[in-house]
Amino acid sequence: MQLQNAIKEFKTTLQVNNAYGYASMVLSIDGSTAAPVASVQHRAETMSFFAGLRHERLTAPETGELLAFLDEHKKELDELTAREVHLVKKNRDQMSKIPAQEYVAYVSLLSRADVSWKQAKAENEFSIFQSDLEQIISTNIKLAGYYDSSKKPYDALLNEYEKDLTTQTLDAFFAQLRQTIVPLVHQISEKPQLDDSFLHGCFPVHLQAALSQDAMDLIGIDKNRCTLTTTEHPFTGGFSRNDVRMTTHYYPEHLAYALYSTIHEGGHALYELGMAERLTGSPANGGASMAMHESQSRFYENIIGRSRPFMDLLLPLLRRHFPDVFASVDADMLYKAVNRSEPSLIRTEAD
Fold it and tell me: Which of 128, 155, 186, 328: disulfide with 151, CB 3.0–4.6 Å?
């Protein structure tokens, strides 16, 4: 096999895999945002079909031979191609350990579970989601064994998001944080609480949506390359630097939730929008790690979005959309309100 022919064949494989992934992600985002509830079964079947194709193509013997050949000649490859070979080879090695039928079934389960979770949340009835959740947990424990049977299940799964990070490291890290944070929370709770009452009331969703669009402009998001829709639990997905999808969730009685959700997801979006053009369609696209991605969203949400200088930019937008509420609110009042700290079972509300 000649090296140039092998590289050409590999790049074609990347294009096909990217097409499958793109189609699956579009279906997933549609299911979480605009698709009718009754569409879940057909969508799950279609996503399972794509998952089966990806698994079959990636684990095929000829793919293994191609990757092995390119890995042998990795010093002759350009930096990006060498990295792509490494990532695809790693993915193949892992996927080869998972039976195709189990992989396809898991993709279908996740699609169905998203619907049952939404229904359970809306009706405040855990039993609606319980069976799917149990299956997701048991499947992940099984997947962890496929990934690395020498590790505890959580360590094997954690390694998928942050390479070489372990529960032992995290336990020590959180124990250290706990020594400072828990006393601090108690100290705050014993003090007079900051007034954030003007952030609670009646805020029509269409006006919040307009505010979110302004917030996107404020932090520099290019709307020709990024859109914002609604979903039950906000997330951001990036296909490429020219196609990023943000979502948020509006509560008519709670203005700050959607506003800071949008700014948080905007941090994710800006990271995706900053990817190099040459990474479009490449497995190297999408960020260095989950922690790196989250650091960008948290940076925009809290370090920038809750800073005192940011209030001078944010307050005019709030007055534009909710003049009756914010006419008597100044920047210092807003700064204190959005930085109010109190315990909550909802992570984004407890920060």
Answer: 155
Strands 236-240, 226-230: pairing kind? unpaired
d(C-alpha 15, C-alpha 284), whole Å: 13
Alpha carbon distance, N-terminus to C-terminus of the chain: 56
What's the structural domain count of the chain? 2
Catalytic residue check, 84: no
- 258 and 339 housed in the same domain: yes
Phi, psi of 280 (to 5 degrees): -60, 125
Residue 99's CB is within 10 A of a number of other CB atoms, namely: 12
Note whether 211 and 318 are within 8 A (CB): yes
Q: Is 211 buried (19+), middle (13-18) or exposed (0-12) by CB count in 10 A?
A: buried
Evaluate whether residue 153 is within a structural domain: no
**Nearest by Cα to 244 from 213, 211, 267:** 267
- Whether residues 89 and 208 share a domain: the answer is no
10-residue stretch averages of pLDDT, the chain, 351 residues long:
94 95 95 95 96 96 97 97 97 96 97 96 97 98 96 94 93 95 91 94 98 98 98 94 97 96 97 95 91 95 97 98 97 96 76 59
Which residues, 6 or more positions from 235, have their beta carbon under 8 angstroms from its beta carbon? 32, 247, 265
Active-site position among 84, 265, 272, 301: 265
Give the domain extent around 91: 3-147
Q: Based on C-alpha coordinates, what's the Rg of the chain?
A: 23
> Is the CA virtual torsion 285, 289, 291, 295 positive or negative?
negative
Q: Is residue 188 part of a domain?
A: no
140 HSE (CA, 13 A, CB side): 16
Residues 15 and 90 in one domain: yes
Assess contact for 236 and 249: CB atoms under 8 A: no
**8 Å CB contact between 48 and 104:** yes
Distance CA 58, CA 66 (A): 11
Q: pTM of the entire structure?
A: 0.94
